[in-house]
Design a protein that fits this description.
Length: about 400
C-alpha cells in the first residue's frame, strides 16, 4: 500500500458542461490520468460549442459520449455501460442548467441520463457568471443536490471570463481533485473534528531576523489531508512553510510558538483528536530588539533565550482534553528511548518518533516512523508521508471508535 492515492485505478466519468471553463477540463482530465485513473468523458451539446470532443478523445484515448442515441458499440447501451463502470462521476465545469436538471431528475442528455443510471458518488464543480451562481433557483438547486448526497466543490471568487467579478469561477483543479479523492475514500472519521499542528515556528530576534528550524510541514499536511479524506472536519494550524497546504482542511497560519499555542488551545476543547506534528521552537528571545541589531562595535553577540510553552503538554492537561492526543518526537539519536520518555512525560496517548538531522526525514517526501502507545509493542512504518499519514489516521479511527 505504498501509493495511498484513491484515484489510482479508479474509473472516473468526467462530465463537461457548456461553461467557458470547459477548457480547464482538459487539464483536469490530464491530471486524473496522471494520478492513475481511467477517464471517460461525457460532454453536453453546449460544451461541444466551446471545445471539441476530439480534444478529450485525444487526451483519454476513448470515444467521447455526447448523444444518448449514438451507441459506439451497437450491442451496448452507452449511458448504462458508462454508469456501470463509474467509480466516480465528476462534473466539472457544471452549469446552472445541468445542476437544475440533476436537482429535479430530468434526464434529457447523455450526462444526466448517465448520472441518473449510476449509483457512483457524484462530485459537482460549478462554474458560471456570478449572478447566475447567486440566482436563487441555482442556489436552491445547489443546496438540494448537496442534501441529495452530491459532493459540491464551491466555485471560487475572482474575475470571470465574462468580465464580471464575484463568485462563480471553477474551483482550483487541486481542490476539485481533492474532493474527487474524498468521494472515493472510506469515511471512518465521519462526524469527528481533528486538529493538527504542523511546520516550524519563527521566533523573532529583531525586525529582520528569527530563529526557526528545518521542518517543512509535509507530515502534518499529509495527516490533515488523510483525516479530511476519511470524513473528518479538519483544522490545520501551520507555521511558515514553503510547501502548499492541502486542499480540504481549514488552514490557520501562525508564526510564533505563542501564536500556535493560542490557535491550538482555542480549538482543542472542540476537537476529538489533536495531532501535534509541528516543530515548535523550545526557546524564544527574551527581548526582541525593536530596531535592526547592528554589528558595528560588536565582535560577538549573546542572545538570551527563554522557554516557550509546551503546547502538547498543555493540550493534554487541559480540562476539556481531546479524546485522543498524538505527539511527535523528533530525535537525532536514541529514538525509541526519547520517544518513550515523551509518551510518559507529556501525557499523550500515542507518540510518533522519527529521526531528524543529517540523513533524517525533515523536508523529505518519504519517512520512517516508530509508533509508540502504552500497552502495544512499538510499530515501524516506512514509506511516503502520505502512506504514514494514512496509517496514523487508521489508528486514530480505531482508537476513537473504541471511545
Ligand atoms: N511540542 C509542543 N510545544 C513545544 C515543544 C514541542 O507542543 N514548545 C510538541 C511537538 O509538537 C511534538 C512534541 O512536543 O509533538 C515533541 O517535540 P520535540 O521537539 O520532539 O521535543 P521537545 O518536547 O521539544 O523536547 P526536546 O527538544 O528536548 O527533545
Amino acid at each position: 500500500m505504498n501509493n495511498p492515492d484513491r484515484l489510482e485505478g479508479s474509473t472516473v466519468i468526467l462530465g463537461v458542461c457548456g461553461s467557458i471553463a470547459a477548457y480547464k477540463a482538459c487539464e483536469l482530465a490530464r491530471r486524473l490520468l496522471g494520478r492513475g485513473a481511467q477517464v471517460r468523458v461525457i460532454m453536453t451539446k453546449s460544451a461541444t460549442q466551446l471545445i471539441t470532443p476530439r480534444a478529450f478523445s485525444s487526451l483519454t484515448s476513448y470515444h467521447v459520449a455526447v448523444d444518448p442515441f449514438e451507441d459506439p458499440v451497437p450491442e451496448r447501451i452507452e449511458h448504462i455501460s458508462l454508469a456501470d463502470m463509474a467509480d466516480l462521476i465528476l462534473i466539472a465545469p457544471a452549469t446552472a442548467n445541468t445542476m437544475a436538471k440533476l436537482a429535479t431528475g430530468i434526464c434529457d442528455d447523455m450526462l444526466t441520463t448517465t448520472v441518473c443510471a449510476s449509483d457512483a458518488p457524484v462530485v459537482i464543480a460549478p462554474a458560471m457568471n456570478p449572478r447566475m451562481w447567486g440566482h436563487s433557483p441555482t442556489q436552491e438547486n445547489a443546496q438540494r443536490l448537496a442534501a441529495m448526497g452530491y459532493h459540491l466543490v464551491e466555485p471560487g471568487e475572482g474575475e470571470m471570463a465574462c468580465g464580471h467579478t464575484g463568485r462563480g469561477r471553477l474551483a482550483p483543479l487541486e481542490e476539485i481533485l481533492a474532493y474527487a479523492e474524498r468521494a472515493l475514500a472510506e469515511k471512518p472519521l465521519m462526524g469527528c473534528r481533528v486538529l493538527v499542528s504542523t511546520g516550524p515556528t519563527r521566533e523573532s530576534i529583531d525586525p529582520l531576523r528569527y530563529l526557526t528550524n528545518r521542518s517543512s510541514g509535509k507530515m502534518g499536511f499529509a495527516i490533515a489531508y488523510e483525516a479530511w479524506l476519511a470524513g473528518a472536519e479538519v483544522t490545520c494550524v501551520t507555521g511558515a512553510v514553503t510547501v502548499d497546504p492541502p486542499a480540504g482542511p481549514e488552514i490557520v497560519r501562525v508564526e510564533t510558538a505563542a501564536e500556535m499555542a493560542a490557535a491550538v488551545l482555542d480549538r482543542a476543547p472542540e476537537s476529538d483528536a489533536y495531532i501535534g506534528a509541528a516543530a515548535v521552537a523550545d526557546f524564544r528571545a527574551r527581548n526582541v530588539a525593536s530596531g535592526k541589531l547592528k554589528k558595528a562595535g560588536r565582535e560577538d553577540l549573546t542572545l538570551e533565550l527563554v522557554r516557550t510553552d509546551d503546547i502538547l503538554a498543555q493540550v493534554c492537561r487541559a480540562p476539556r482534553r481531546p479524546r485522543l492526543v498524538i505527539g511527535f518526537a523528533a530525535e537525532t539519536e536514541n529514538i525509541e528511548t526519547g520517544a518513550a520518555e515523551k509518551l510518559a512525560s507529556k501525557g499523550c496517548d500515542i507518540v510518533v518518533a522519527n529521526r531528524v538531522g543529517p540523513g533524517g526525514v525533515m523536508g523529505q517526501d518519504d519517512t520512517e516512523i516508530l509508533v509508540l502507545q502504552a500497552g502495544s509493542a512499538p510499530e515501524a512504518v516506512r514509506g511516503s508521508k502520505r502512506h504514514a499519514a494514512r496509517h496514523l489516521v487508521g489508528l486514530l479511527a480505531q482508537r476513537l471508535r473504541k471511545g
